[in-house]
Every structure is written in C-alpha cells, then in structure tokens.
Amino acid sequence: MKRELLLLCLPVLLLGDFEVSGHLDLDSQAYLTSPDTKHENSFTLKQTLEFKYENDALTAFAKVYAQEDYYDLSSDESEHNDRTFARLDELFLKYDFDESALQAGKDIKFWGALELQNIVDGFNPNELRDDMFKVNKLGVWNASYSYYTDSGEVSAIVKLYEQDQSMASAPYVYYLFPDFVSYDDDLVTSDGAYQPSLYLLYSGSTDTEYALDFSFIYEHGYDSQRYFSAPAPQAPTEFVANAYIVDKFMTYNTLVVDSTLIKLEALYAKVSDDDFVGDYAHIAFGVEHTLENFYDSASLGLIAEYYKYETFEDDKYDDLELFQVMQNDLFLGLRYSFNSSDGSSIVGGVVEDSEYDERTYYLKYESRFINTFKVELDYYFIEPSKTENTAYALLGEHQRVALNLAYHF
Questions:
Q1: Following CA atoms 325, 329, 333, 337 in sequence, which dihedral angle do they give, to the nearest 10 degrees?
Q2: Using CA atoms, how far apart are residues 129 and 162, in angstroms rounded to an integer?
Q3: For residues 72 and 139, what is the distance between their CA atoms, to the nearest angstrom?
Q4: Which domain holds residue 381?
Q5: What are the pLDDT digits (tens) for 299-357?
Q6: Number of domains comprising the chain
Q7: Which CATH number characterizes residue 373's domain?
Q8: Rounded to 5 degrees, what angle do the CA atoms 152, 158, 160 make?
C-alpha cells in the first residue's frame, strides 16, 4: 500500500520545487563573572534543517531544530545542564489565492520594530534552555486566513494549543531560579491547554513622502506573559509557570523621516479574573538616526529607546514578581555598518534602569565570509540592583564573552 501511495504522490512532487537548507552552529561562551555554583563556560552544538516544497499556489514547509550541550555528555549527572534536545519548530501547509492565503500547521511569527526588545512579539514562547540574550522561539500550532489589500493585510489567526516551556537545570548559568528551587515544566492554564487564542491583525503602509508601516493586533486568549508559583504549600521550592486569559491590544509601527527611523511598540492587557496578575501596559519608543558615509562608505546609526512597564492593581503582582526587566529602562546605542559584501556590522550600547539602579552593557559583531559562514562575537556585562530582587539580581553580577560560528547551506 505504501508503495502505491508513493507512486501516486511522485508525479505531484516532480511538478513542484523542493528545497533543503539550514545551518550548523558551534556556540561557545565564557562566563568571566558568575556565581561559583555555575559552570564557567558552555559549549553547544546547534543544527537547523529546513524543507520547502512549492507547487503553484501550494507551499509546504518544515523546520527541525536540535542542540547538544557539552556538559550533558558528562558521566556525572550533577554536571548536566539538561540542554540537549530536538524539536519540530515548523510544519505547515499554505495555499495562496488571488488576494488571500490560508495556512494551517505549526509555525513561528515575528512581530515588532525595536532594536533591543520586541515587547509585542508574544505569539511564540521563547526557549528557556538557551541563551537568555538570544531569541530562540518555539513553534505553535495554529491556523490563519489573510486577506491582502493594495497597502497591507488583514489576518485572523487561531492558536490551537498553549505550549509548555522546559528549562535548563541549575548548573547552567541562565537557570532562572536559585539552585534549591526546582521547576516543573507542565504549564498550568486557567482554562486548559487546548483553549484557543484568537488574534486579529491589521497591517499596512503609506505611500507618502514619509514612509509609515503600521500593525494593530487584538488578542483574546492566553497571555504571552507568565508568572511562577509554588503549586502546593508543602512544596515551596518547586515552581510552575501559569497562563491566564487576557484581552490584549498591541501595535508596532515605524516611520521613516529622511535618515531617521522612528519606532513605537505598545500594548495593553485586560486580565480576566486572575488572583495574581492584574491589568498592565507596556510601551516602548525608539529613534535611530543614520549617518551615511560616516567613514569610508560605512554608516553609523545612533539609537535611543525607552521602555516603560506599568501594572494597575496594587494588590497583585508587580514588575519584580513578574520578572519584568524592561520596566523603566533607557537604551543608548550605536550601530556601525561597514557596507561591505560580507554584511559586517557592530552594534552595542548601555541599558540604564534608573529605578532599580542597574546597568547592562553589550557589544556584538556580525560578519559573513565565503558566503556560507557566519561569525557572531558578543560581550555582555550586567551590574544588577543591590537593593531590589530584580531578575538580574537573581542572576548576580554577570560578565560573559560568546562566539558563534555557523555554516549555512
């Protein structure tokens, strides 16, 4: 029977285009300043493999991701970081009509406009077993219908399942809790993991002297923000993540005025009867001005961004209890683009939290060579608050250097 099905499908496959691509990464980090109980370094092998098939209006896509942690190979289980795994990130079918498209399956969506953090980019949860300074998203099962206009699109998206988030173990430097606290990765949901979340999205652009791109999103369903709690008084050192229902209004926008890019992201969440989390808002505003031909055809970008997070119910969790790091922060940075064929650039700056008196400094260099190899080098230094129990205070004073080498094919 399998042979007959293959023979029936083979002519269809031959009519379309099939592509395989991906990349292999060697990610290494040295922690120059970190707690004594943590590993002083990490070495991670990462693989991403993508499959794409197109036949007229039909597109099929799949992406598989895997990573292996050096310490997980140790015979001593107490040394394990529990960061070795494989996952299916994307698997979907998309059919394009003349002015619309229908898609169903598992995929990853990106929303936002800012440099440092995209506060509206909450459709996919982040991987908690990876570097906390990198975006590594988990695919989610959903179905969507999009209608395209001359200047934008209108989309309706239904997320079908709320994804659990596993976490690395305590020896890994980016384990979120103190060493004596364990984590249960079974997500606790207010209405069940299969309660659907509905998103309505409208985006567009203007064809005027000043180019404006805008997006508005409404969600009714589970919030991307989580809070942690001990599920039972008899187990105060075991935490779980909790998800709750919201009505959420989001927007992200960019406006180009000559050599200046103005960026805005904002959201407001109306929480539905949760005992611990109340209504909140998050807004971020940014400006990036580019000096073209700054030096030998290279360009220099001057970046400033401000983030403000506010809760509205005093008897419920505040930003500290919700591990919110961008609650009252100013980012000042520079982007130096060499404008060469290898796409080399340097970006960095300082994040100042005047409310809790903590700072983060970072510098990142990216480049390609021989078209197929990419190198990333970064440096982070965190001075956490000495008076408040912020997320960075739990991490402690932290300094790291990281090198990522990737082969793309």
A1: 50
A2: 18
A3: 24
A4: 15-408
A5: 999 999 999 999 999 999 999 999 999 999 999 999 999 988 788 999 999 999 999 99
A6: 1
A7: 2.40.160.10
A8: 150
